[in-house]
Amino acid sequence: MSLFYEDFTVGQTFAGGGRTIPEAEIIQFAHMYDPQSMHLDRVHAEEGPFHGLIASGFHTLCLAWWLFLRLGLVQESMWVGVGLNVLRWRRPLRPGDTLFLLVEVVDKSLSSASDHGRVTFSHTLTNQNDETVMIYQSVNLISCKRDSPSSHS
Questions:
Q1: pLDDT of residue 153
Q2: Sign of CA pseudo-dihedral 129, 130, 132, 135
Q3: Domain 5-21+57-152 belongs in CATH node 3.30.460.10
Q4: How many CA atoms lie within 13 A of 95 on its CB side?
Q5: pLDDT of amino acid 113
Q6: CA angle 32, 37, 43 (to 5 degrees)
Q7: Which of 6, 12, 93, 100 is deepest in the core (most CB within 10 A)?
Q8: pLDDT, mean of residues 142-151
């Protein structure tokens, strides 16, 4: 069930995840969108600075966004994402890692149109060892309750 602008409070947190990332998915994403040897070639990656195959940072970002959407918080209430802030890759995502997501509401403001508001979420992606893999903030336009489809009946 979606939450609306009024349902979010600064400091509120949500957690989810538990998705394990197979090597084949890392390689497939890299072939399509980020064809660098550290994402594609196990042998070459072993000799590189990460000492093994790692996922593209953009793949990691997509996975984090997927985990966020799977929480179901904004499934019906999000108008659109308007930007990302503070994107940092802290640790490589490796084949077999399991990802978890912690989301915190860090800011919100009502728009002048008053049918939606801007909500900024801080996303922290961690692995199975509770190590931070990536952090970023997403800025999203979220519907107000009075603008929800059920309020038009």
A1: 34
A2: positive
A3: no
A4: 18
A5: 75
A6: 125
A7: 93
A8: 68
Q: Which residues are CB-neighbours of 10 under 8 A, at least 6 positions away?
A: 105, 106, 107, 108
Length in residues, the chain: 153
Phi, psi of 24 (to 5 degrees): -60, -35
Tell me which residue of 29, 22, 24, 3 sits closest to 119, measured CA to CA.
Answer: 3
Give the model confidence (pLDDT) of 90-146 as tens digits: 999 999 999 999 999 999 999 887 799 999 999 999 999 999 999 999 999 999 997
> Which residue type is seen at 21?
I
What is the distance between the alpha carbons of residues 153 and 150, in angstroms, rounded to a whole number?
6
Tell me the per-residue pLDDT of 62-82, one tens digit each, with 9 for 90 and over: 999 999 999 999 999 999 999
Cα–Cα distance between 64 and 29 in angstroms, integer?
14
79 backbone dihedrals φ, ψ, rounded to 5°: -80, -55
The residue extents of the domains of the chain are: 5-21+57-152
Beta strands in 7-146 (DSSP E): 13-20, 78-89, 98-110, 116-126, 132-143
SS3 label, residue 102: strand
Structure tokens at 56: 């593209």
